[in-house]
């Protein structure tokens, strides 16, 4: 089934929002397939954000993201990518609705707490990049209460 890569950025870890962010995905019904805390290297982040490497904020983004540990997770389930982005809220907290993670907890676009894959293709690319050894695959009986 569809998978997405969600990452709590250094500001989210520092502010103690890991549990909150994880819980929103868990309670929605998505299945946790991988969870990892690490301080990423600049080269890993440059690969992760390669589509943005011509943007003026790119150097600052890499510096911020490599400054402290992040918590990465893989969630699987129906429409995980699109719904995951909805749970995070719009990139710029000025536009993110209350009830979303960014809408509820942050103010500045450069410190927007979390990352979520923007398409099924980028999700699969990011999952291989962050979890080269693979992730877990398992069945949940609980899914019969979530899906018809
Ligand atoms: P991610 O889930 O983090 O990938 O965010 P996104 O997909 O909603 O946005 P995008 O991939 O375009 O940008 C990646 C990250 O770069 C954003 O989450 C922001 O932290 C940062 N960013 C994007 N646009 C700006 C900007 O205009 N200024 C600054 N300072 N940072 C930005
Ligand atoms: Mg993005």
Automatic annotation (TrEMBL):
Positions that bind ATP: 9, 57, 85, 91, 102, 112
SMART domains linked to this entry: NDK (SM00562)
GO molecular function: ATP binding; nucleoside diphosphate kinase activity
Reactions accelerated catalytically: a 2'-deoxyribonucleoside 5'-diphosphate + ATP = a 2'-deoxyribonucleoside 5'-triphosphate + ADP
Cofactor: Mg(2+)
The enzyme's E.C. designation: 2.7.4.6
Keyword set includes ATP-binding: yes
Protein name: Nucleoside diphosphate kinase
Species per Swiss-Prot/TrEMBL record: Smittium mucronatum
């Amino acid at each position: 089934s569809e998978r997405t890569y969600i990452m709590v950025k250094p500001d989210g870890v520092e502010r103690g929002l890991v549990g909150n962010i994880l819980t929103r995905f868990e309670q929605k019904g998505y299945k946790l397939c991988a969870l990892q805390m690490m301080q990423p290297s600049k080269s890993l982040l440059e690969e992760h954000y390669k589509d943005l490497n011509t943007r003026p904020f790119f150097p600052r983004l890499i510096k911020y993201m490599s400054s402290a540990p992040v918590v990465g997770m893989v969630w699987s389930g129906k429409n995980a990518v699109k719904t995951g982005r909805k749970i995070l809220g719009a990139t710029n907290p000025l536009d993110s609705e209350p009830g979303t993670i960014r809408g509820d907890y942050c103010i500045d676009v450069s410190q927007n707490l979390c990352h979520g894959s923007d398409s099924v293709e980028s999700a699969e690319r990011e999952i291989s990049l962050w979890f080269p050894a693979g992730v877990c695959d398992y069945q949940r009986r609980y899914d019969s209460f979530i899906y018809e």
